[in-house]
Amino acid sequence: MKKGYIFIALSALFFSTMEIAIKLAASDFNPLQLNLLRFLIGSAVLSPLAIRHLRGSGFSLNKSSVLYFLFSGFMCVVVSMTFFQMAIVYSKASIVAILFSCNAVFLIPFAHFFLKEKLTKLSLLSLVISLAGMMFIVNPENLTNVTGIVLSLLAAVTFALYGIIGRKGSLKFGYDGVVQSSFSFLAGGTELLVLILITRISAVAHWLQSIGLGTFSNVPILQGISWSTLPSLIYLGVFVTGLGFSFYFLAMEETSAATASLVFFIKPALAPVLALFILGEAITANVLSGILLILAGSCIAFFSDNRESRLAAARKSSVQTSRIQTR
Asked: How far apart are CA 177 and CA 164, in angstroms?
């Protein structure tokens, strides 16, 4: 159990520095290029852990599972993380970190509608409080950065949808989080590479530039990689994406899924503090109020998850006991 909390602390630290590291590397790399490189590196780091999990499982790829990984990878790497990368370009790293952490909030209604999971009073309370926290951060009365906030929220919503796809895949194919993430990152990175190669076609590049999407035209692949930029790229790919997810899944193994989710409760509190010291991004009264509300909502969600897990375990134990007595 002690080892599990060490994994949680390491994962939270790496995830909390993600937006800061991307912000620092943004001037050296195209957003799509950085997205591609970090997820391909992250997939390579995760693969040994995924292979270990697959040993003796009788795992085999078929048309259905390949399509699943292509879809989940597309939603995560191509859609959600592209919104995420662009959000960091247009907004403060601390704001993106806080709003993106709310993907767990969006997961609550999605899980109810797509997975038919029970919507409890506590989960609804968590949703309302977290949304109130988001409103404090967005501050509609003084909304000056619409683009960055919209992109951050789109990243959070689509990442929550990726989470739903992951759960469905887990139920259908029996993959755990390590395998699902490793293969999805590889599939998504491959899809993004294909799209990047398409942007390098002259006619496509001219069209993208003509409609004001020059950032997405002629996207480089290896350009910008040098001895000076290599440390930030390695940190993002190996530590944040690869080890961050690895420690998160190892924490699940040592503790539980609910306990490991503490990572995403620590992130909205830790990331703004780190952004303050590293990037000099001030924490305003509104943002501080929003952080406290989101943390309160997250704690309620954590308590609700633990409570439902205990009730489910108690019901399962009761059924097993009654079967034994019947025999």
From this structure: 12
Residue 116 in 3-state DSSP? coil
Of 84, 65, 58, 48, which Cα lies nearest the Cα of 156? Answer: 84
Task: Give the span between the Cα atoms of 191 and 206, in whole angstroms.
Answer: 22
Q: Name the domain count of the chain.
A: 1
What is the number of alpha carbons within 13 Å of residue 244 lying toward its C-beta? Answer: 22
Query: DSSP secondary-structure letter at 79?
Result: I
Q: Which residues contact 241 (CB under 8 A, 6 or more apart)?
A: 38, 39, 41, 42, 45, 185
Q: How confident is the model at residue 188, as a pLDDT?
A: 93
Burial degree of 44 (CB within 10 A; 0-12, 13-18, 19+): middle
- Cα–Cα distances (Å) from 226 to 29, 222, 229, 232, 283, in that order, read 11, 9, 5, 10, 34
Mean pLDDT throughout 288-303? 79
Contact 248, 260 (CB under 8 A): yes
- Whether the predicted model's global pTM rises above the 0.85 cut: no
Q: Which domain holds residue 134?
A: 2-326
pLDDT (mean) for 299-303: 73
How far is CA 194 from its chain centroid?
Answer: 22
